[in-house]
Amino acid sequence: MRTFHARDSLRFSLKDGFCWSLMTGFTDSYYLPFAIFLGAGVLEQGFLKAFPVLLGSFLLFFVDYLLRRWKNRRKIVLLAIYMQAFVLLAASACAFMRRDAGLYLLIAAISIYIAAGLMGLPAWSSLMAEYLPVRRRGGYIGWRESLLGVALVFFGLVAGGILQLNSQNAGIGFAALLLAAAVARFGSVYYVAQMYEPPYREDKREDVDYFDFISGEAKGNIWRFAAGCSVLMAFTFVSAPFFSVYMLERLNFNYWQYTAVIMSGQLTTYAFSGFWGRMADEHGSRNVMAVTAVVLPVVPLLWALFTDWYFLCLVEFIAGVSWAAYARGVSNFMYDSAAPSLRTKYLAFFGMTIGVAQFAGSIAGGLFYKHLPRFFPNAEPFVWLLIISMIGRMSAGFLFLKVKEPVNRSLGARGFLLKVFDLRSLLIQR
CA dihedral defined by 207, 360, 263, 122, rounded to 10 degrees? Predict the structure, then answer.
């Protein structure tokens, strides 16, 4: 691939990224509050958080078929974008319908919206890997996400302001957010269509299916990594569907306070993405994942201890730093572990595995949330979910110990952690 193709494609992908930031900032943190506004109960909230990732897992099976048929990853990304744009248009109409009908339409639309995003991610990630040399992938993608993260947080704050100003008629506010998100996503179509599609290379000797993905020594290392990530995400999603209802209904946060807590986590996730990307490039994705294993189990404990919105902003700041390490560690590990001809498939298989784990965690969390009050009538059920989540996250850390680094790097895990948690080193490198 000629250099100018890569440079121009990265430029178009960045413009698409700003459209994505507006869509995500206006949608992802607010569809659960919209469902609550439409009358969603605990089970509906858990389903809305769980079912989309399960649907996305099934759609990822479809990615392999499309790749074989079209031999074009950009077309798969464009299909996912069109799906998201049209269902967001449909979701914006929910505010003007009867509440029960609007809730069902919202659940259907958001399920397709999230599932389509998951479906397009492996093809998009594979394209980005083609444009970037190995030693620059983590750093560039981290820098890109840091930049887009600032935009996402800005749009998220704007969205929170719109809802707060329309708090007496919140349905209009939610409809406006989703309509603007749909328009932004249609804007992505133009920019993605300009990205260069390298010739598709299919090696029949390297053809794999899902069972190949979880077997063999080299692939087995990927599977051990996927198993650790699955346990982590399953126990994260035990409590994840209920943060919104906890803040809005139990703690009585207004939309500004809710937005401040949510956006503080997102801001640090994207702000530290570049740092963790460089660390993954230099010292290995497994080492970066060690930070996740150390820090993330502490987060639900802090949520159980504090209820003031400004303290929870600090907790989310800590969580955001760790989730940034998780995101960069996962992407670099998969890029380093899979050959270019298998990268899209392996990313799809990995996404399927994680999606099923998230679905299982969400369903389990919904059942716990419903039945725990029978046994502990004086306790807040969400706090019990946080404790379960903390224990499960700790167990995931032990699984990562069995994972091997796919590419030799310069520091061992102990030396890497000492370097990361040395504040002076962190500030200098950033």
Answer: 10
User: From the CB of residue 80, how many other CB atoms can be counted at a distance below 10 Å?
Assistant: 25
With b for 16 or more beta-carbon neighbours within 10 A and e for fewer, the 275-285 pattern comes to bbbbbbbbbbb
* Per-residue model confidence as pLDDT tens digits over 285-294: 878 887 888 8
* pLDDT tens figures, 33-64: 999 999 988 778 878 888 898 888 888 778 87
Q: pLDDT tier at 377 (50, 70, 90 boundaries)?
A: low
For residue 351 the two structure tokens come to 């996404």
The closest alpha carbon to 65, from 345, 359, 356, belongs to 345
Range in 112-121, 167-176, 198-207, 348-357 the model is least confident about: 198-207
Decide if 270 contacts 152 (C-beta within 8 A): yes
Give yes or no for a contact between 128 and 141, defined as CB atoms under 8 angstroms apart.
yes
Distance CA 83, CA 85 (A): 6
* Structure token digits, residue 102: 């609007």
In the chain, where are the structural domains located?
3-194+208-429
Cβ atoms of 227 and 349 within 8 Å: the answer is no
Q: Which CATH architecture has domain 3-194+208-429?
A: Up-down Bundle (1.20)
Which runs of consecutive H residues, i.e. helices, occur in 272-401? 273-283, 285-295, 298-305, 309-337, 343-375, 381-400
